[in-house]
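Q: What residues go here?
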C-alpha cells in the first residue's frame, strides 16, 4: 500500500518505518527541511532501540522516503496518517492547530478518495473537526479514521510490530477494509483489531493512559502508607499483583511518572471532562499525587543532612524519565535538580543517553560525568532517578570508595534493602522503610 505520514516526530517516524517494514511504500512529510535532509541521508533523529536498523534497511530499499512537500508526499497515497504534535495549551487542553492546519491544506490538495488517519492523541470529537477542515476545500469522497497509538518509548518497535491490540475508530465500510488490510500483517499472532466509532477510539487512548497513570499514583500512595506503617511495598505489590483482576504490571512505585504521554493525557482528560460539565475527581488526585511524588526524596535527603543541604554535593544517576530513552519531558530528575540547586546544593549527573538533552535545558547549573562511577567523586550521597539496567548491579566497593558518606537515596527501588544494610549503607527507597 502507498502511505503518507505527516509529521516525523516520535510517533510519525516509528509508524512510518514500521509500515515500510512490512512492504508498504511510505513517504514521511515534515515542514522542517533540516530534519528531512538528515533523515533522507540516513541519520536517524530519535533514539529508539531497534529502530535505526529497520529505518536504514527501508531507506536503502526505497520503501521509506522523506519530503517537505505535503502535495508531493500525499499525491499517490491511499492512506494519510497525521502524526502531528498536540501540545497542551495554557489551559491544559490539547492544541489542535497543527492537526487542523494540515487537514485544511489536505482539502486543497486532494483530488481522489483517501483515508485520513488521526494517529496523534487528540480529544474526543477531533475526527469530526478534521473531517470538516478537509471538507471546507474538498467536495470529493474521503474518510477520517481515528487510530490511536499505544507505543511505549524504548520498546516502540516491538509495540508497533506486535501490538496487544489495534484500535480503529471508523464509520465507513470502505475505510474499514483499507485499515483491516493495512494492519493484517501486524496481528498475525491473533491479537485483535478492535473496530469502533471515532469518538470511542479517541477516548480509548486517554482512558488507557489515564488508567495506567492511576495505577502508578495509587501504588505511590500505598508506598507512602508503607513508609508510615512499617510495611514493605514490594511485598504488597506482589501480594495484590498476583490477582489477575489487578495484574502484575505498572504497580511499581517510584518518584512519579513522566514522559510525553501520561502527564499530558491525564491533564487533557481532566480538561475535556470539565468542558462537558464533569468533574473527573480521581484523575485530579492522580495528577496531584504525581506532582508531590516527584519531590518525595527531597525531605528524606534534607532530614538526613539535618535540614541543611547547602554546600552538599550530590551524585545523580539517571535523567531520562525512564530507561532506554533520551526523553526528559516531565522527567522527575529535573524536578530533583531544581529543588537541590535551589537549596544551595551542587549536583553532578550521569545518564547513558539523556545528558545532551538535559544540558540544553539546565546549562551549567549542574555538572555532568562521562560515566556512572566518576559521577560519584566527592559526593555526599548518591541519588537514583532512573532505573537504567547498568545501575542495577553496580560495584558497591567503588561506590563506597568514591562517596564521602555511604548514603543512597533510591527513587526506583533498585537495590535489596537488606543487602544495602549489610554493606553498611544508609539507604532510603520508596515505600520500603
Ligand atoms: C506510555 C504508554 O505506556 C503508551 O502506551 C502510550 O502510547 C504513551 O505513554 P511511555 O510514556 O513511553 O508510554 O512510558 P511507560 O513505559 O508507559 O512509562 C510511563 C511512566 O510511568 C514512566 O515515567 C515510568 O517510570 C512510570 N512507571 C511505569 C512507574 O512509575 N511505575 C510503573 O509501574 C510503570
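A:
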Amino acid at each position: 500500500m502507498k502511505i503518507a505520514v505527516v509529521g516525523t516526530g516520535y510517533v510519525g517516524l516509528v509508524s512510518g518505518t514500521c509500515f515500510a517494514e512490512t512492504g508498504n511504500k511510505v513517504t514521511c512529510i515534515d515542514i522542517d527541511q533540516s530534519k528531512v535532509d538528515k533523515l533522507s541521508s540516513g541519520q536517524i533523529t530519535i533514539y529508539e532501540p531497534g529502530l535505526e536498523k529497520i529505518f536504514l534497511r527501508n531507506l536503502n530499499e526505497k520503501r521509506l522516503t522523506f519530503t517537505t512537500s505535503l502535495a508531493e508526499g500525499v499525491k499517490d497515497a491511499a492512506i494519510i496518517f497525521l502524526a502531528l504534535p498536540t501540545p497542551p495549551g495554557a489551559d491544559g487542553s490539547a492544541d489542535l492547530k497543527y492537526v487542523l492546519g494540515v487537514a485544511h491544506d489536505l482539502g486543497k490538495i486532494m483530488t481522489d478518495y483517501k483515508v485520513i488517519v488521526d494517529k496523534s492523541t487528540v480529544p474526543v470529537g477531533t475526527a469530526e473537526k478534521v473531517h470538516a477542515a478537509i471538507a471546507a476545500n474538498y467536495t470529493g469522497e474521503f474518510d477520517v479514521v481515528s487510530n490511536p497509538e499505544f507505543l511505549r518509548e524504548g520498546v516502540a518497535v516491538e509495540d508497533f510490530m506486535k501490538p496487544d491490540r489495534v484500535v480503529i475508530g471508523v464509520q465507513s465500510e470502505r475505510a474499514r477494509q483499507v485499515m483491516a488490510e493495512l494492519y493484517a500483517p501486524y496481528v498475525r499472532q491473533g491479537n485483535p483489531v478492535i473496530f469502533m466509532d471515532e469518538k470511542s477510539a479517541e477516548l480509548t487512548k486517554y482512558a488507557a493512559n489515564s488508567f495506567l497513570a492511576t495505577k502508578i499514583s495509587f501504588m505511590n500512595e500505598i508506598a507512602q502508607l508503607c513508609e508510615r506503617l512499617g510495611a514493605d511495598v514490594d511485598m504488597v505489590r506482589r501480594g495484590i499483583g498476583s490477582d489477575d483482576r489487578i495484574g502484575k504490571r505498572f504497580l511499581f512505585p517510584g518518584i512519579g511518572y513522566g514522559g510525553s504521554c501520561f502527564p499530558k493525557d491525564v491533564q487533557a482528560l481532566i480538561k475535556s471532562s470539565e468542558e462537558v460539565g464533569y468533574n473527573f475527581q480521581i484523575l485530579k488526585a492522580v495528577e496531584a499525587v504525581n506532582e508531590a511524588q516527584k519531590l518525595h526524596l527531597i525531605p528524606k535527603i534534607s532530614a538526613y543532612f539535618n535540614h541543611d543541604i547547602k554546600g552538599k554535593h550530590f551524585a545523580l544517576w539517571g535523567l531520562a524519565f525512564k530507561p532506554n530513552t533520551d526523553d526528559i519531558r516531565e522527567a522527575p530528575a529535573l524536578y530533583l535538580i531544581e529543588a537541590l540547586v535551589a537549596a544551595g546544593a551542587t549536583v553532578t549527573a550521569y545518564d547513558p543517553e539523556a545528558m545532551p538533552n538535559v544540558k540544553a535545558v539546565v546549562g551549567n547549573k549542574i555538572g555532568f560525568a562521562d560515566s556512572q562511577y566518576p559521577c560519584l567523586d566527592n559526593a555526599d550521597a548518591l541519588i537514583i532517578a532512573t532505573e537504567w539496567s547498568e545501575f542495577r548491579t553496580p560495584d558497591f566497593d567503588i561506590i563506597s570508595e568514591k562517596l564521602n558518606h555511604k548514603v543512597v537515596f533510591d527513587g526506583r527501588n533498585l537495590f535489596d534493602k537488606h543487602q544495602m544494610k549489610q554493606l553498611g549503607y544508609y539507604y532510603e527507597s520508596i515505600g520500603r522503610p
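A: Context that may help when evaluating the design: The chain has a mean pLDDT of 96. The longest helix spans residues 198-229.
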